[in-house]
């Protein structure tokens, strides 16, 4: 289920997730209350092993609640066993962000790919495209990976889910600097385009030779090419 814009976090680092759930925007009134006895919540403690462990557990509990709470009335309170049972579909799976499949299954076959098709971005002006600037522009749409193509005015965009890909296409449709659209291999691939052009050239030459051969009657002098 898609979440409202105010209930999303822009990246997946531990501090961002912890602060997101601390604000309570996505937890609801019946979310588990996690209290750390004898310590103060302080972002200055991040990258301390003990503090990071606490934040990881905190985010895990809140994610478990977010995963299961939408299936029941808002007033329902969950016990720990119910939260863990709701996470059973993710058991023995390792999340992958730069692969064609969303996760690696340690206890069976990997799932089918659910990644959205790649996008391509092109600079409207005749100048090289800056990958860092493009990555910064797209960072508000979630996780993206940008790789430069040939010609240098274009780059390939890989999004982590279909929702973010649709948002990029919708909100940047009329961007003054860039043109963004679906990636088409025969049109944008630096490998496929030369192969396709070569195949068309060879096919055209063979067809022309065949036509000239058929047009020449037996015993007639060859038709000059």
TrEMBL record:
GO molecular function: nucleic acid binding
Lineage: Eukaryota, Metazoa, Ecdysozoa, Arthropoda, Hexapoda
Name the record gives this protein: Uncharacterized protein
Domain of life the protein comes from: Eukaryota
Xref: InterPro entries: RNaseH_sf
């Amino acid at each position: 289920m898609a979440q409202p814009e105010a209930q999303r976090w822009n990246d997946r680092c531990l501090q961002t997730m912890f602060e997101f759930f601390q604000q309570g925007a996505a937890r609801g009134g019946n979310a588990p209350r996690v209290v750390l006895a004898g310590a103060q919540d302080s972002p200055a403690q991040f990258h301390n092993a003990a503090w990071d462990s606490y934040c990881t557990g905190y985010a895990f509990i809140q994610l478990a609640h977010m995963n299961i709470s939408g299936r029941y009335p808002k007033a329902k309170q969950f016990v720990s066993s119910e939260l863990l049972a709701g996470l059973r579909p993710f058991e023995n799976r390792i999340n992958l962000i730069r692969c064609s499949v969303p996760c690696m299954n340690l206890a069976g076959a990997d799932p089918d790919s659910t990644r959205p098709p790649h996008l391509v971005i092109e600079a409207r002006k005749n100048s090289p495209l800056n990958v860092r600037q493009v990555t910064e522009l797209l960072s508000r749409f979630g996780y993206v990976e940008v790789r430069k193509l040939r010609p240098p005015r274009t780059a390939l965009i890989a999004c982590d889910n279909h929702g973010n890909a649709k948002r990029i296409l919708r909100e940047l449709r009329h961007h003054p600097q860039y043109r963004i659209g679906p990636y088409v291999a025969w049109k944008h691939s630096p490998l496929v385009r030369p192969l396709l052009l070569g195949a068309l050239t060879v096919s055209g030459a063979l067809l022309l030779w065949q036509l000239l051969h058929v047009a020449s009657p037996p015993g007639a002098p060859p038709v000059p090419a």
